[in-house]
Give the backbone structure.
Amino acid sequence: MTEIFGIPLQAFMSQILLGLVNGSFYAMLSLGLAVIFGLLNIVNFAHGTFYMLGAFGAWLLLTYAGLSYWWALVLSPICVGVIGVVVEKTMLRWLYKLDHLYGLLLTFGLALVLEGLFRQQFGVSGQPYQVPDLLKGATNLGFMFLPNYRAFVVVASIVVCLATWYVIEKTKLGAYLRAGTENPKLVQAFGVNVPRMITLTYGFGVALAGFAGVLAAPILQVNPLMGSNIIIVVFAVVVIGGMGSILGSILTGLGLGVIEGLTKVFYPEASSTVVFVIMAIVLLVRPAGLFGKEK
Amino acid sequence: MAAADKAVLEIRDLHAYYGESHILHGVNLTVREGEVVTLLGRNGAGRTTTLKSILGLVGERRGSIRIHGTEVLGMATHKVAHLGLGYCPEERGIFSSLTAEENLLMPPPVGKAGAGMSVDEIYAMFPNLKERRNSQGTRLSGGEQQMLAMARILRTGANILLLDEITEGLAPVIVQTLGRVIGQLKERGYTIVLVEQNFRFAAPLADRHYVMEHGRIAETFAASELEAKMDMLHEYLGV
């Protein structure tokens, strides 16, 4: 059997794939966080909770409405986005004039409350969610078996991330968003409805987290704690990539997922800490992050 | 002509605050359609704050500001802009994450449909901007950035222009160009409020002058009275 550095190719490749799958979730979550932080100046600690809500949305839609995975993939992020819009309009709106810290505290509290409610209702053992029929099974690539669903997750997340990047960097709507990130008052003085743009941006950012949650449901099970499990790593990803860079957060997310996967192959004990070690090094060498701009 | 007497901007007893500090103490100011009016005064006299107050970019405001007869106190900033205002801030406000052309195209139309200049017209007026349209906005020279800041509000169809210190720190040749532009805009019937330090630049362009001091209007006079008022102006402006 082929080996790479003494590791069977099969194991090597499947860890890379696993890393890419995790990296896809990191990328989608850190992208949303970066967009929200850019325009709202809020460190959205509830981001993981919206990811969890996305997964629960899929499970609830299936269990109580009989709607398939594909419906959930569309409906659940929309519902999460709507919840985000309500949160922005009723709570976050009042904090923009205050220090970042208040937004962080509010969203952290919100995360604890929502997570607590779901724990109370559904317990912590997790609800199973089936891989959709269309994507069951695996494809034999010759050197490894590629589980179809995982391949789909990676492709779907890359497509969504690149589409987001394109809209922000290359369209008129994105120009509003970039300009609003720099100087929201001036953009509003030009006649753009900046408060509405802020609301929709928050809604979109958390909908992206919800979408990631639906993608994760068949892989990780649907668990009230899934949000807090991932969010700490995602914040480390954001710190490494640098707040505010769109492409930076996508690449950093995917890259760190792969690095985590590779660490599992070569030194499994370090796999859950490697991201934080990298974060510490990046903070020492480039405090603004790999893709961030020094302020 | 009746239209020429119509006040497009009418400020009555305006008080404005930044947090605790009381900046404007009862400003009264009227600008008629097609007029070019200057706000003269020293730094800190409240000229920039007056412009910002019109758009709701300060803290609390009291008094009255009417644009075409519509009261704008309590109106959201973006809605005020849609009454046909074009604002050129003192710091120019060119966005660094946008190219020069994206900066130019960013402000949405605020006037009647088709009222603004086309991009071609603007590039004819400011040829430098066409050459540098793909550069990052803040990589442009100071003069180019100022032209861009002017150009982008001409595209929107705004017919009331609030221009804050547009000649500050620019080379004489660029100041001349801007003077020509203001002259052309005046001919086209734009209503313009110029906050200026550079009196030589403003004097030949303006119909009337307001002198501000300590957050109030200290003097108002027409361009024709300029000669007689020079001594007084020197005193207020300290030039």
